[in-house]
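Need residues for this backbone.
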């Protein structure tokens, strides 16, 4: 019960963080393009995702007598068996660790809305883009990672470090994309420290 509740809590928190990032991205224009994080249940663990997602009803009575168990018995028994057995190989150990890692239960992508209103998935177009376009999603992901890492807005008003250090950041981006990216970091009050060539200082 604890494992299921903990995984559900972590998955919900990850979704909230991505929604928070998307809210900030909604008002930022990257040369006419807009970006948005997309997520969905991972196909290979979909039944376990559903098990975890419905675990909010647990805790009101004995587990094996609950409606939850009878409704999800087959998936629950497989989940329990895989999670508790003694691994006999590195592959089995890795599979076991994956089951207890909330990041395994979601698949992520970035949706790009182009100036003409058409949308593309970053995973489909990443090999067809220029250097600056390639770097933009990278920095969006960095921002999302640090918001998650520092647990921004989770600490009941307590101060938290918000430092992000880069080496030669934004090297392939033009001034407009740099400005948009810095605006995103500023919206989360992230403090950037970067080493950059002298000729790019004016952009920053």
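Answer:
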């Amino acid at each position: 019960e604890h494992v299921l509740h903990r995984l559900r809590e972590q998955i919900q928190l990850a979704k909230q963080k991505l929604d928070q990032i998307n809210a900030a991205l909604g008002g930022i224009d990257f040369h006419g393009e807009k970006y948005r994080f997309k997520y969905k249940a991972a196909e290979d663990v979909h039944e376990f995702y559903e098990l975890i997602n419905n675990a909010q009803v647990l805790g009101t009575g004995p587990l094996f007598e609950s409606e939850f168990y009878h409704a999800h018995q087959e998936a629950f028994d497989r989940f329990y068996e895989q999670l508790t057995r003694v691994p006999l190989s590195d592959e089995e150990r890795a599979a076991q660790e994956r089951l207890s890692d909330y990041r395994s239960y979601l698949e992520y992508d970035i949706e790009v809305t182009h100036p003409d209103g058409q949308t593309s998935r970053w995973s489909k177009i990443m090999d067809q883009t220029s250097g600056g376009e390639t770097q933009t999603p990278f920095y969006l992901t960095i921002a999302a990672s640090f918001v998650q890492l520092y647990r921004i807005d989770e600490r009941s008003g307590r101060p938290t470090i918000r430092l992000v250090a880069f080496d030669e950041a934004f090297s392939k981006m033009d001034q407009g994309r740099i400005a948009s990216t810095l605006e995103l970091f500023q919206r989360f009050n992230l403090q950037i420290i970067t080493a950059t060539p002298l000729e790019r200082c004016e952009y920053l």
